[in-house]
Amino acid sequence: MTHGHRGRFAPSPTGDLHLGSAATALVAWIAARTAGASFVLRVEDVDAPRVVPGCEAEQLEELRWLGLDWDEGPDAGGPCGPYRQSERGPVYEAALESLRERGLTYLCDCSRAEIARVASAPHAGDEGPRYPGTCRPHGHASRDFRRPPAVRLAVPAGEVVVRDRWQGELRQDVAREVGDFVLRRGDGVFAYQLAVVADDLAMGVGEVVRGADLLDSSPRQTLLARLLGGEAPDFAHAPLVVGADGERLAKRARGVPLRDRRLAGESGSEVVGHLARLLGLVAADERGPVAPRELVGRVDMDALAGVRQVRLRAATGESAC
Questions:
Q1: Contact predicate 152/183, CB 8 Å
Q2: Residues 6+ apart with CB under 8 A from 136
Q3: Which of 33, 106, 206, 317 is the Cys-Cys partner for 296 at CB 3.0 to 4.6 Å?
Q4: What is the CATH number of the domain that holds 22?
């Protein structure tokens, strides 16, 4: 991360922060503070129907309980606000208009079921089945839509190369492997891919530190950033914290939500100590609480290189031996 650039953590207020969220926030915070960069807290609440009332305030309180702070955010202000995606609609509209003016978007009224019926790989990727481009020839022309149309990106052919700080090189022909992906849904909600790219460009984010489960979205975001006239941030995908069985964390499993840890009387520094050991940032035999500030400039972040996931013990939430 270039000195002076921003790092960020961007939770969605749709449920409890858990140990996996805390691990990602911790790594992102350490990376920014070690680089002498500003740290931004951005609330990704663009999908309003999924937002849980009161969740944002609770998440910010829990991050402070862990010992994390931020220089810019919804409660702190800053030069790149607003810091809630729900308040950044004009930024996303401008990005869409820029792409539309260059013929890079089109309207699509195909349903998921229709796409799945014609897709060669009906269960491929987090975008769902690869979209075959049925509506692309129509562009933005008026026609009798069967349902409110989505806006899709007309993805250009060619390979996108991402060099991730910890996960190495990723190559993807987005057009062939993902297809034309959605930028705004038919119900008017801006897609995650558009919102996050537009925000990172506008906020001057220099390095995106997040969980390895989002690694596959980085070629799409790199491509979209370039089409919007910018360059994507550097990417650093940290290990994903999973359950003892290797499955993704169930947010309500005992001891997994941060709320459970607080109610059990555990301190934020004790949780940070657990996570630092789990991630290999401190020695496994270095027991006890650790404040995040004690890790800045002390830990070797390259310990995360090549690690896609780490497992918790089922009963205690501690790392497996």
A1: yes
A2: 106, 152, 154, 180
A3: 33
A4: 3.40.50.620
Tokens found for residue 189: 């909600």
Global model pTM greater than 0.90: yes
Predicted confidence at residue 318, as pLDDT, reads 46
Measured between alpha carbons, how far is residue 72 from residues 43, 68, 76, 84, 208 in Å? 11, 13, 5, 11, 16
Same-domain status, 306 and 265: yes
List 251, 293, 308, 311, catalytic entry = 251
Instruction: Give catalytic status of residue 100 as yes or no.
Output: no
Q: Are 113 and 77 within one domain?
A: no
Q: Are 122 and 181 part of one and the same domain?
A: yes
Give the 3-state secondary structure of residue 184. Answer: strand
pLDDT digits (tens, 9 = 90+) for 218-250: 999 999 999 999 999 999 999 999 998 888 887
Q: Can you state the angle between helices 55-66 and 268-278, rounded to 10 degrees?
A: 80
